[in-house]
Amino acid sequence: MSERESHPDSDCIVVGASFGGLASAHALAAAGLRVTVVEKKTDVGAKLHTTGIIVKDAVDQIALLDSLPAHLVRRITGVRLYAPNLKFVDLAAPGYYFLATDTPNVLRWLAAATERAGAKLALGATFTGMQRERSGFVLDGLGSTRYVIGADGPRSKVARSAGLGTNEHFLAGVEHEFADVTIADSDKLHCFIDRRIAPGYIAWVLAGVGGVQAGVARRAGSGEPKGWRPDEAMAAFLAKIAPVIDLRDARPSSVRAGLIPCGGVVRPVAASRVLLVGDAAGMVSPVTAGGIHTALKHGLAAGNAVADFLRGKAEDPAGSFVRSYPKFRLKRLLRWGFDRFQTDFAFNWLLATRPVRAAAGIVYFHHKGVFDTADRAVLIAPPQRE
């Protein structure tokens, strides 16, 4: 046995400093283990690919968020869902809310909290590959470790290097942020259904922290969909919604774009002494494309499970533990149906009906149900432009 195998440089290396990776590292560091987070960016808040919405379930369940600074979030209490003809219905669940976030600074806050817990952040460091050894792995140019957690996004290099499953089904998304812009009905998440602009998904507008965010996502294949031009998609979307929310003259202060996995958890998601979390694991809702809640929740759980294993208190979490990862069975079924049967005519006709509202309850409010002030929701026509 070599000296390196007897004394690895760290107990765990986490590749990727987004929500899932930082949550895993925080749990490991809090348990007293030597953990290093490897991140190719020099700023964890730069070049993001997420809208940054945190659901109420995450706030209720994840104590790590208790100290999240109030100025980094903004509460949204309902959803306004628009049919392709721009008629809409308002949806809500008692006590339920979403938090829009200043996502770059939320990630910087989480990274700082993870460092305070005792983790080391290696920014500007790139994962290129790893080789297995008896007591763990040697990562090219990054040292040796007893365990590896891959949290390096939907095209995970850790997954490929370890022979794990990779994401195959994606949404392609683009989002513009408009600083110092306001919209009416800012307490709602505005969601738009339109098969031409956003096939297989939706477009959205929300009043975030210090501005407005507008985004479009659509079904993709193994890469960018044929003919997909993010700037053209955004221009078409802003022109379409101008009668209800007019952002055509606003200039974006920042632009986000990227692929969002929507096929559910990859298989296999783990092997001996290595597992995936977050987008790398496909841990994103196939319907809403929301992944922050699951990344934080299961990232923390993975970190604690790896810590127990490395301290000799439990078996390798690459075994039974990963069975606790979300299955998304119902949401994958909804995704299958939406991909195959989405028609603008149907949504124009059915949006206010009970079955569609029930489906919206699953999609937006996590089984909390949808409640309207009246027994039956009524579609409201948009104002007419003069």
Structural descriptors:
7-stranded mixed β-sheet; alpha/beta; 386 residues; FAD/NAD(P)-binding domain
Explained architecture:
Strands 1, 2, 8, 9, 10, 11, 17 and 18 form an eight-stranded mixed β-sheet that branches. This protein is α/β, with parallel strands linked by helices and 386 residues long. The longest helix is centred in the C-terminal third of the chain and has 19 residues, at 292-310. Helix 2 runs parallel beside helix 4 and helix 2 runs parallel beside helix 7. The model is unreliable at 368-377 (pLDDT under 50). The protein is globular and about 70 Å long. The protein has a single domain (3-365), classed as FAD/NAD(P)-binding domain, CATH 3.50.50.60. It contains ten helices and 18 strands.
How are the SSEs placed, and which strands pair?
Elements: H1 3-6, E1 10-15, H2 19-30, E2 35-39, E3 54-55, H3 56-61, E4 73-76, E5 78-82, E6 88-91, E7 98-101, H4 103-116, E8 120-123, E9 130-133, E10 136-139, E11 143-150, H5 157-162, E12 170-179, E13 188-192, E14 203-207, E15 211-220, H6 230-241, E16 254-261, E17 270-271, E18 274-276, H7 292-310, H8 329-341, H9 344-350, H10 354-365
Helix pairs in contact: 2-4, 2-7
Describe the structure concisely for a colleague.
This protein is of the alpha/beta class.
Shape: globular
Structural class: alpha/beta
Q: List the uncertain runs.
A: 368-377
Q: CATH homologous superfamily? A: FAD/NAD(P)-binding domain
State the distance separating the first and last CA atoms.
Answer: 80 Å
**What is the top-level CATH class?**
Alpha Beta
Give the DSSP E fraction (strand runs of 2 or more residues): 15-25%
Structure summary, number of beta strands: 18
